[in-house]
Amino acid sequence: MGICGEYDILDFPNSCIREFWSAILPAAFVFSLYIACVLIPRTAGPVLTTLCWPFKQFLLLHEAEALELGPEIGFNGEIQEEGKLLKVPNFVPLWRTVVLSFVGILESFVWVSSGAYRAYNEENVIWRDLFPFLIAFSWIYAAIRPITHPTATAPYDLFTLYLIFLASSLLQIGGFLYDYGVFDTPLPPTVVLGAQVTNLIAILILLSIIVRMPMAIPSNKVDRNELVSGGYLLPV
């Protein structure tokens, strides 16, 4: 017997299959991050470096700044003529951390509550009852990450995770509309449908925050007024 009975895992018209993919994709991504960052031994470092070589950023922003400033900057980032250090601001706005973590905690609580409610009302615990807990597991990572590793630049892991959440949310809502339009299946209760729409709005808000974060921050040798006048976005 499969996860959703006799249905194939690619049978997307089935609501159970849609829930399966909506739960397994973000959980698998978070688990992959855990394996890559914690479980892989240090001896695998050279292998990973070789595999990631085509994606390496060869010239960083601050290296480009050093080339532009010329010989007055040493390799250690010290300005030899002025006796100052080339500093990079690393200020992380508190509101950003609060919003990202608060939404993640709230989403985790809602999904755990949903899973507990479904498990309580089912006579036998089935695989489908575990789907909300897998989603909650993924949101827990999204809630802890901004607190334990705050960064002034865009976190690519959270960005990827939010994109997966977005695809999962669209899959669920699109599935409701598909069932209603094709099979004349009644829409889910207002509470369920409203929760899904609210979840989609929350994900879009988080994505809008991430995409407004800079990919790199210029050093103190760059005039921020020139960046503003030139139309470049600065970290807020």
Largest sheet: 2 strands, antiparallel
Q: Mean of the pLDDT scores?
A: 75
Structural class: mainly alpha
Number of helices: 8
What distance separates the N and C termini?
Answer: 52 Å
Total beta-strand segments: 2
Q: Give helix and strand order, one letter per element, not per position.
A: HHHEEHHHHH
List its traits.
mainly alpha, 236 residues, two-stranded antiparallel sheet
What's a quick, concise take on this entry?
The chain has helices at 15-39, 45-51, 61-69, 94-121, 131-148, 156-182, 190-211, 224-229; strands at 78-79, 84-85. It is mainly α and 236 residues long. The longest helix is centred in the middle third of the chain and has 28 residues, at 94-121.
